Amino acid sequence: MQSTLTPADIGSKAAAPAPAAPPLIEIDDLKVRFFTHDGSIDALEGVSLTIPQGKTLCIVGESGSGKSITGRAILNQVPRPGKITDGSIRYYRTAGAKPVDITGLDPRGAQMRAIRGGEIGLISQEPMAALSPVHTIGNQMREAIRLHTRLGKKAADAHAIEMLAKVGIPRPAERLNNYSFEFSGGMRQRICIALALSASPRLLIADEPTTALDVTTQANIVDLLLGLQEELGISIMFITHDLGVVAEIADEIAVMYLGKIVEQGDSLSIFRDPKHPYTKALLRSIPTFTRERGGRLQTIKGMVPSPFQRPSGCTFHPRCDAFMPGICDRLVPWPVEPQPGRVVRCHLHADRAEIDRALGGRA
Fold first, then answer.
1. Burial class (CB in 10 A: 0-12, 13-18, 19+), 333
2. What is the pLDDT of residue 292?
3. Sign of CA dihedral 279, 281, 286, 288
4. Distance CA 328, CA 316 (A)
5. Alpha carbon distance 217, 155 (integer Å)
6. Within a domain: residue 39?
7. Is residue 284 a part of any domain in this protein?
8. In the structure, what pLDDT confidence band is assigned to residue 124 with cuts at 50, 70 and 90?
9. Which of the 8 DSSP states describes residue 363?
10. Count of domains for the chain
């Protein structure tokens, strides 16, 4: 889709920094651990980020970075044998009211079930797996609507037809009686969006929603989400590895690597002036129109390591072109603010005196 954009030619959402919006979700020092027969794995190590009201936060990183687990934690649906072990997820259900800490709610309790699906919707990567093959689209939408609203059957059907029309399903009243396998991949993803929006959520978590689609359909789905956000005023947390899509839709960006956020800030500043070597490497790997024909596409050396073999110090240091021996392999980077609104975890931007003190304390 937008994968041919250059970092200097980013989408309209990032044309200028937007005024700060009040928070909808505040995640503070979130930790998730998986307890397996081979030992425990830290999937998230102290993740902190904010999802603003009415804005789009994109979480970017390679597979295994912890992007999807972050989304599942917000839904209080960390898959077994995973568990939230520390931190908070503060959700502001109404403006000015005291936030609800999602980590303190019973995942199967009435309050969490009302939030999940009703106030926070999810669009998954593979719509065929998200939709039941043995129930009609109408049955599935009617159940979701009535679960989170007080609408009767007829009113729920009317609302389902309205939502299908809103996401661009032709002849929605007729298609309500069809099964998921009777739709194309792009249409199935539109149905998943309609399902996620059917209870009028305040936050939409989109977990790689365009990955399994062709380029043209990807563009249509992204345009659809942007239009719905503008119309409905919802917040979106968009999980992806595609920086071309990020350039098109993001207000804020959080770059993740091996369970940590290594850089975050507004979209414009990150694309124009990336700070972390990992962010820079991701941006260099975007195909561009200006690349010489037949030229080699730049890649990031190595692979994301296994969580059981997590490198010491900065976990990115074995793949980093700016690796500083004796520092990056010994010290875990702490968050640094190189400029207002930007946070980066990299020793290149840390105060040298602080580094020396940290090394001296370990000697």
1. buried
2. 59
3. positive
4. 9
5. 31
6. yes
7. no
8. confident
9. -
10. 1
